[in-house]
Design goal:
mainly alpha; 12 helices
Length: about 325
C-alpha cells in the first residue's frame, strides 16, 4: 500500500511539474528560434546563441548528472538492502531533481537553449531508447527475452547490467531533460511528463517499489502513448508504427513474467492482429504494415550487439562474478 501511494505521488508530481512548464511557457515567446527545417534538425534552438547559453545549459546538466551519480554511489557503498522506508538517499535524489528542475526552468527563461545547440537530436532520442533496450536485458532473468524464453546470458554480463544500470539510466534521463528548452508545445509537455515519471524510479533506489513489476512495466509502456501522441501532434503519419511497434514489444517480451495464462496471451495477440490490420486498412497503408517491425528489430538488435560487445572484452573481466542486487 505504501508503494502504491508513492507511485501515485510520482505521477502527481510529474503532472504538477509539467503544468508549471505549460503555464509559464509563454515567457519564452520573445526568443527567436530556428524553427522547422529538415528531419532531425532540432527546431527549438536560438538563431543567435551566446557563450552564456552554451555555458549555462552544460553547467546545469553537469551539476545535475554528477549529483545523481554521487548519490547512487554513496547509497551503494552503504549496502542498505530493500525496504518500504524512504531513506536519506531517496530524499536527496528527489531534492536534486527538484533543484535541477528549478535550475533548468530558470535557465530556459533567461537563455532558452538546452544542450540541443551543441549536440544532434538523435543523441537525446537514442539515450532514452538505449535505456529501454537495457531494461530488456535487466528483466530477462524474470520474464525472458522473447515469448517468455530465457536466454543464458553470461552471469558477468547480467552482473554488470545490475550494478551499473542506475548510472546509465540517470545519465539518459538527465541528459534528455537538459537537451530540451522548457517550451510549451504538446510534444515537449508529453516528453517532460514521461521523463519526470521515469526520474521517479531513480528516487526509489533501494526501495521495494523500485522492483515492483507493475510499476516498472508501466514505466516501460508509457513510451507507447508518448510516441503515438507526439507523432499525432506533429502531424506525423507514422504514429501507427510507434503504437503497434511498442505494442508488439509488449506481446513479444514485456507481458511475460506477470503470471498470465496462455488464453490471455492468445486473446491479446488476437486483439493486436485485428486492430493492426484494421488501422492500416482504414488509413490505406496496408503496404506499409511491415513498419511495425522496425522497433522490435532495432530493440533486439541492440540487445545482441551489447552482448557481443561484452563477449569481445569478456577475457578482461573477473571469472567468478558475485551476485549483485539491482539498483
Amino acid at each position: 500500500m505504501k508503494s502504491l501511494r508513492l507511485f501515485g505521488t510520482a505521477f502527481g508530481l510529474a503532472l504538477g511539474l509539467t503544468a508549471i512548464i505549460a503555464l509559464t511557457a509563454s515567457g519564452l515567446d520573445h526568443f527567436r528560434i530556428i524553427g522547422p527545417t529538415k528531419p532531425f534538425a532540432y527546431p527549438w534552438r536560438l538563431v543567435d546563441p551566446t557563450w552564456m547559453t552554451h555555458f549555462t545549459a552544460w553547467l546545469g546538466y553537469a551539476l545535475h548528472n554528477l549529483g545523481a551519480w554521487w548519490i547512487i554511489a554513496a547509497a551503494r557503498r552503504q549496502k542498505p538492502g530493500y525496504t518500504e522506508k524512504m531513506r536519506w538517499f531517496n530524499g536527496a535524489m528527489l531534492g536534486l531533481h527538484l533543484v535541477g528542475f528549478g535550475l533548468h526552468w530558470l535557465q530556459s527563461r533567461l537563455w532558452y537553449d538546452g544542450l540541443a545547440q551543441d549536440v544532434p537530436e538523435i543523441t537525446a532520442l537514442g539515450s532514452v531508447a538505449l535505456m529501454l533496450m537495457v531494461i530488456l536485458i535487466l528483466e530477462t532473468p524474470r520474464r525472458g527475452l522473447f515469448l517468455g524464453k530465457k536466454l543464458r546470458f553470461d552471469k558477468r554480463f547480467l552482473r554488470i547490467i545490475r550494478e551499473y544500470h542506475g548510472y546509465l539510466f540517470t545519465w539518459a534521463l538527465i541528459y534528455t531533460f537538459w537537451y530540451h528548452p522548457m517550451a510549451g508545445t504538446w510534444g515537449h509537455l508529453i516528453g517532460f511528463f514521461y521523463m519526470f515519471v521515469l526520474l521517479g524510479q531513480s528516487v526509489l533506489l533501494f526501495h521495494r517499489g523500485h522492483t515492483n513489476k507493475w510499476w516498472t512495466l508501466s514505466l516501460e509502456m508509457l513510451v507507447l502513448p508518448h510516441g503515438v501522441l507526439v507523432a499525432l501532434f506533429q502531424g506525423n503519419a507514422l504514429w501507427p508504427m510507434f503504437g503497434f511497434g511498442f505494442a508488439a514489444m509488449f506481446l513479444l517480451t514485456q507481458m511475460y513474467g506477470l503470471g498470465w495464462t496462455r488464453p490471455i496471451y492468445g486473446l491479446l495477440w488476437g486483439v493486436f492482429l485485428v486492430s493492426t490490420m484494421g488501422v492500416y486498412a482504414w488509413m490505406g497503408r496496408l503496404a506499409k504494415i511491415h513498419e511495425i517491425l522496425r522497433i522490435p528489430i532495432l530493440d533486439y538488435a541492440v540487445v545482441f550487439l551489447l552482448y557481443l560487445l561484452f563477449l569481445g572484452i569478456a577475457k578482461l573481466l573477473p571469472k567468478n562474478p558475485q551476485e549483485a542486487p539491482p539498483v
